[in-house]
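FW: tagging you since you asked about this chain on Friday. Here's the raw sequence from the shared folder, copied in full. Didn't touch anything.
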Amino acid sequence: MASSPCSNSNFDSGLEIKTRSVEQTLIPLVTQITTLINHKDKPKKSERTLTAIHRVGQAVNVAVGRFVAVGEAIASENQELKDEMGQACFEARRAGDAIAQLTDVGSASPAPSDDRVTVFSDRTAMVKAARMLLSSVTKVLVLADRIVIKQIITSRNKDLKDEKKKARMAAARAVLEKCTMMLLTASKTCLRHPDCESARINKDAVFHRMRCALEQVIEIVTEARSSGENKTLSASICNGIRDFKYTVESLREDLFSLTPQSLTGQLEALVERTEDFTDSAYTSHEQRQSILSLCQLTRQDTQQLVHTWVGVQQSGSSKEATENLEVAILKTCHSMGDLRRELHNVAVGRASDLLKVHGEQLPLRALKAAGAEGNLEAVADYSRKLTEQKEQLVETCRLLCHVSCTEPLEITCIHAEETFHVIGPQIISAAQTLALHPSSKIARENLDVFCEAWESQLCDMGLLLKEINDVFEGRRGDRKPYLSLPRPGKHSASLKSAKAVKLDAEEQTSMAKLGLELRLLSSDVDAELEKWDEEEHDIIRQSQSLASIAYSMYLFTRGEGVLKTTLDLFHQAEVLSEEGLQLCSSLRTFSTRLVDEEKAVVLTENETLVALCQQLQMGAKTPVQGKTATFQKVDSTIQASRSLMTVVVSLLPLCNKLIRKHKSERTSLSSPQDWRETQHTSAPIKEDVALNGNNSNGFRVKSLDEHMASLNLLESK
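HL: got it, structure written out here
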């Protein structure tokens, strides 16, 4: 770093600054110290110059004091580096005091011959103090970096297993990604119309939301506790029902683990939470009555359980008493399950109805039109309608949070609730700005951005609804993201010189329907694979990979995920086609052990899949020029991917059925003698490989070529 101020020979204190962040942090400090030392070369100075030097010295000392205070606070929270950090802070404070003393006006005296003042301070002392200050400040910065890096690494390792932290981080990341464009247009609007109060409110709201998201990221990385979040999660009805049933079932093991009063108190606290459903103005009379009836039934069953439980405690655990207690436990759990099912149906049903009603986005369209016309009265009218819609969505998200059975889904519901709560007023303020300045292009663009964020959140709510249903019905609600982007140079050479294009909002909206179909197909693949008994089958592995790649392409249609440009999408389409061809190869091997009729069906579907993979591969490699042609290529790529995944979904249940059939036939026909005889032939091993996708003979060792082929395949992805 020869050009760095830190490498000035006057300040050579043996420092070795290895990071640019530390270097950049030290530059302002070095600049001020350089000013002080250079002035020491001129012993005579005017009062004005001396005052300036004094001010700089005092500023350095104050800044060092603040810096040291932060360092000492860090030291108190990290015992392993407390001594080192404390010593570095002490040296920095002492050096700052020395510089302040050397630049003090009291240390200067007037010269006898003129009006100038002579500073009799030793230049060597200033250099020594500067060296000590730079050395100690650098040490504090390096130690602080070590602590932060350790926290990040520790948090990252834990996040790999903590689904709750993953969900919180994903929510914060979604806010930051979506707020980026909002901040750009809101800031432009505020600059274009600096006297507009609604524009300022709009911009400030974006800043506030981004600040909250960053604070959440910091909480996760530094493992700080968020009392508000813990309070929210613990209050969900689903958690309460789970805890209550666990408490009831624990009576089988220990009759004296709790008191009847604590059990009834737990039930009443749970019933009280159902008031979010029964007190809602949007809950129908029939639904309200059903919930209240089930709550009363649960109370009755719990009272009967308490009566039986107390009787067993008093009379002893006879066979009859134990059986009666078991019946009471089952009955109470059953009634609680009925209550949970009814609450789930109410929340999910209302969310589905809202999405259907608000799918046309009538208030947003009306707001845009009224704002463009400069009609403030119409904007106020439609703002009230949007506010009512926002309140419905916020309340519905709160109910969905109650029936979400996993913490990640609860966090996602809370994120959706906060998003609707915040974006609604932002849309209104953006519409007011446009109404005040109807000819402003940037104000119109700003309103469009916020309306698109609202529509995107409605789409997210539809996916959230499906995942909540999946978990409730016993299917997995999580999704394994496909994060491996193909590297440049691994695929078509014609794409190397292609220009990456980002789709605008209108094009992304038109892609939304196709993308959603791709998302549903990837979920269908997951659902079919869960029915398979062979977890290590090649067909399973390759189908899972296809589903993950398709999901990443779906995220692209929403402007999210790791695929940022059309070039990334086309690369990913090539990976999808290559993985599809690998699946075709496995299917051909599988078909060799089938009878003629079964073989013909599988091969027919396989030929269709091969053709679709080749079509997708050729389309992805075809170069295009211009935005319109690129958009058409994106459309055809996603359609071809959808067709490919449709064939995969139809093939999986067929293959699973045939594998189970052949397994049952081999089981019924085989005998110990047959098994011993087959150990000397290779045909059964080939059959097992063909049908199961792996070698069940535990004594076979893979060749080096096979391992290298697997490694190359992974690298290509």
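FW: The longest strand covers residues 108-110.
HL: agreed, and Residues 217 and 493 are 40 Å apart (CA to CA).
FW: great, closing this out.
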